[in-house]
């Protein structure tokens, strides 16, 4: 039964009347000496605004932005994101996020309180004390990437099954060889959790195999703004038991087992994470969330698993021009991976799980045409992260291999128990050395010759359907071959998103400009099927230049998340063309 969650008020900082009298106009930085937490207070005459000194991206600390002559913005020390504290809106990336504000109240003595209105941690509703676990009662088996097979008493639960085929069109392929019985394991599951719509978690090739044998298997997803299975009908996969559940509410499976899905604080429209609890023992899977549950997570869980690798973006490998030299990209990637590694290690140290497992980062750009990406998109080593964690805490770490099984009861009782983690038998193939490219590329290539693209008016039809406009950005779209040279007979055109026009030349007014070169098979497949542009961008199927060098959040957010749920009506389009 769903229960309402009572809101509580927490005092984060108290300023004395003298400190209030000494507030300067503009930006003021404060630290709570008792908690070590940092805050920003902005004063404009008698008006005060306040927030946590924590960047929404990856929790970095803000400092004064020396480039801001008006004294209204602060800069994150991690990735140079900028926040206008006078409006609580991020200005780099532009038109992106808003900072969560704190409540400012004056006390009876003209002191000042910074307050945060919080719901209680939802997992603390109806708390359960941990009960005794028998050996073998809870077992976690790693299959591949972000896919875990959990035995929880007499129930089986599977996370994010991507076990065959590519993800992001043709850009990602499995690094690990899944156990040979992976399909049997899926068919025996009592329930499956799919965290979000990205195809390395929601794998239609995998689910198609499963649906042929168990179309009614219960699948659970969070109630995200863009439905996880928004493209189910068009995929042709026949699944009949998809359950969308609210965030922060325990879902009871049996008397011992329950789970709760939580949203991501940065991408609540699509990302989720999960807490699974069996007999009072919690398993926390934060998956790909940037700030799961806004940064509030249960501490001292039995097992925590999260992503770790980095590299799940076209930036900066697919960019060229300006600062994007090979040297700059290599240094940027090295720095970013180190930041991510330190962030994950700090998060684990703060949350103090008994056991930590890095996963959801085991992919490879194995198609020969993506050799450059494979060589430059260096990812974090899970053993390096685990060693960093062990240096700073007593947390037990587990680097999983396909088919390896962790016995939770044994590991909680004695981490040195030789039966606590059962590795796959000697001779088991761990890493894939061949991939079946053919069937998947054949589907993509079929779109190249589709009748739609005989008519140049498809361009207006498609971008009108997409619905993005009133934004001062001009994009040049170029269809290319495998090496990103213009495709013979392919389209090369401009889109002016200010008025959604298609000029022959760039307009004379001042405007932002991007050039997007896309492999013809993937861009036409995406256009034909009304798919999101993650297949292009995260899948490394584009090469980009931009002037000025600004990330256009509204543009990319629209084409990666907010396109219409129904694909373009190409049948009607072709009838009118005829």
UniProtKB/TrEMBL annotation:
Enumerate the catalysed reactions: CMP-N-acetyl-beta-neuraminate + 2 Fe(II)-[cytochrome b5] + O2 + 2 H(+) = CMP-N-glycoloyl-beta-neuraminate + 2 Fe(III)-[cytochrome b5] + H2O
Major location category of this protein: cytoplasm
Pfam families the record matches? Lactamase_B_3, Rieske
Q: What is its EC number?
A: 1.14.18.2
Return one Gene Ontology term, BP aspect: N-acetylneuraminate metabolic process
GO MF annotations in UniProt: 2 iron, 2 sulfur cluster binding; CMP-N-acetylneuraminate monooxygenase activity; metal ion binding
Which pathway does it take part in? Answer: Amino-sugar metabolism; N-acetylneuraminate metabolism
Keywords, A to Z, come to: 2Fe-2S, Cytoplasm, Electron transport, Iron, Iron-sulfur, Metal-binding, Oxidoreductase, Transport
Q: Which GO terms describe its cellular component?
A: cytoplasm
SUPFAM superfamilies assigned to the protein according to its UniProt record, in alphabetical order: ISP domain, Metallo-hydrolase/oxidoreductase
Return the InterPro entries for the record.
Answer: CMP-Neu5Ac_hydroxylase_Rieske, Cnh, RibonucZ/Hydroxyglut_hydro, Rieske_2Fe-2S, Rieske_2Fe-2S_sf
Nucleotide-binding among the record's keywords? no
User: Residues in domain Rieske?
Assistant: 15-113
Q: What is this protein called?
A: Cytidine monophosphate-N-acetylneuraminic acid hydroxylase
